[in-house]
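Memo to structure team: turn this sequence into structure tokens by end of day. - J.P.
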Amino acid sequence: MKIFFAVPHSGCAYWRCHQPANMIQKLGLAEVKCFDEINMGDAIIEEMLNWCDVIVQQAAMGIPLVIATAKYKEMGKTVIGDYDDLTFTLSPFNPAYRTLGLNEVKVQMNGKEEYLWQDNKKGFSIKENYFRYKSLQDLLKLFNAVTTTTKVIRDTYKEYNDNIFIIPNSIDFSLFKSFPKKDTGQIRIGWTASDSHYSEIWMVKRIMHKIFDKYVDKVKFVELGNLVELRHDFNTTQMEMHDFIGLGTYPLKLAALNLDIGLCPLDNTKFNQAKSQLKWSEYSAIKVPAVCTKLEAYDCVEDGVTGMLAKDENEFFDKLCTMIENKDLRDKIASNAYDKNYEDFNLEKNAILWVEAYEQAREKCNLPSSDKGLLESDILKI
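Reply from structure team:
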């Protein structure tokens, strides 16, 4: 089988396509090629599209991709869509709401109600976003199969496609390796978070302020991401901020933070109910124990054994204090969590799940190899 991952260079595509593609190729499970939006021209893309049996598109939406997917199927290709978020349920505090939000949003600011998002203002268009939303539904119907990360996403999308495979986000343990811990005289508490976690900022601020009130200079808050607003609430003696770096070096950067505890906070929203266990898996792979919000994403975490689970902010604070004060417990949980992830969320073991899903999708379609070519005018960059 020849698989073409037609995906961009993004965080989601890194986890859901680029890393699985590399592992599939490494293990010799299939022939694989990946789209490179920087170096590939139309001629090379045309060659790849004609070469492959299966085309994988990650987080696809938009009318051009509906047209492209229909053309690929006419060529006899099996087209797979991969989704790891309920995109159109994200928080209005996420900057991506500009192109994915479906409703105007007002908030209380300085004692009065103001628009956070107003239709046809500052690039926010409900009409254009609705077209994107409808194109997602059209694509889900067109795809020969869909791969996703959680039951919540599968159950949401199954009305559009009944051929959906759950494949968990998995860790390449050859990339994620722990470093020997350096004793800094402080407990280093880390949070890796992009701007998709804006809704959790206030929760984390409240928890960490309580932690500093109790432990003062015995702890250090370490943030890896782009939530720069945190700089306004914590001084440089309390907090370290690290910017995101290239995806290829991210595992090394995470390990180099020398963390003692990882944070996995989530607000109880529809968007977060569809999240996967990935953040806990990342910490676990470098042998850092984590405190996680008790939501569907962390159903795989056994409280007190492979992590700490907290149903609300107060319990999150209490569990974090327990971790801070008990090194033996931290070490035990870190070891157990590593073993759990190595067994259940190991990309080297799970890469076959991607290949099996694609094979089943192609067999269900009963599609032979096609000699139909693709005209250069049909090429649509993704």
